[in-house]
Amino acid sequence: MTALLATRVARADSASIADAARILAVGGLVAFPTETVYGLGADATNGAAVARLYEAKGRPAFNPLIAHVIDVDAAKALARFDADAERLAAAFWPGPLTIVLPKAARCPVADLATAGLDTIAVRVPDHSVARAILSAFGRPVVAPSANRSGHVSPTTAEHVRADLSGRIDLIVDGGATSVGVESTIVACLGAPMLLRPGGVPREAIERALSRKLADTPHAAGHIDGAPLAPGMLASHYAPRTRLRLNAKRVEPTEALLAFGPIPPEHVERARSVLNLSPGGNLIEAAANLFSHLRALDAAGASAIAVMPIPEDGLGEAINDRLKRAAADR
Ligand code: TXA
Ligand code: MG
Question: Are 126 and 98 in contact (CB under 8 A)?
């Protein structure tokens, strides 16, 4: 369970912006205004901070997050731009457009923030407070809308307080946001595709690209043919090796994904072993989940045996992700 934090609300000024950068640097959570909606920010390069962010939002699963950066050069340290992405960035950044791109080779963003995907969503916000925080902090900031999962996106500091008080460190109050809806999300992974309508209209994007956006694929049999949640469009990261969940014992040909103290007979038998959290901490486990899965997937084992993980707190999201990975084949 999340410990109750004393959430501070501070008017946006040079002191609160410096505080925000200090809190982000030590893995804390800061809500701040962007031109679209308030975002809940964490250091994108700190897996444990990202895990705490999912927990504060009460996300039932790990949806990939948007990395916010100060300018297009900073974005290029995270992602590979094609010609369409270059055009979109030149036309709409800073502004309410998010672009989904292939991750750059040495992208420093934590695996958990992109839910283990090889793609990353990036955006350069157009709000003086968001920009001041990004510039003071000097690293990418992941920021989903600053609401509890399933609630509407907040456009004032008071909305954020009502939803997240006691769960985050600081709310920087910069007044009501101007756009009021989330950023438009366009994937540039081939033919540009609209993943989420938002602050920049489709027509403006098509004009900048001099071409039509590809249609969002619809979920087979989905009610009303509604689009898939954007995060679902990019195929999930799924290990090639079969996953065996709630494993009580491990075979010599198997790799072991452990949680908490490992029974000694497991260590002797398993082909390779990685522990999500030797001390049984679910935040640490979430931060390690995707990188450990990748590492064990490369071990050439007959299967990855996964020790039982409790369902409380982030355990629910971890187990959700593991179940999908086990079924994805
Ligand atoms: O306006 C906004 O975009 C706000 C402000 C705070 O910047 N942020 C926001 O974040 O709306 P969030 O987490 O509420 O929505 C991000 C969406 C999610 O639906 C997620 O699935 C999608 O972006 N997304 C993130 N990374 C993705 C990826 N690699 N591929 C496809 N979709 C992705
Ligand atoms: Mg949201």
Answer: no
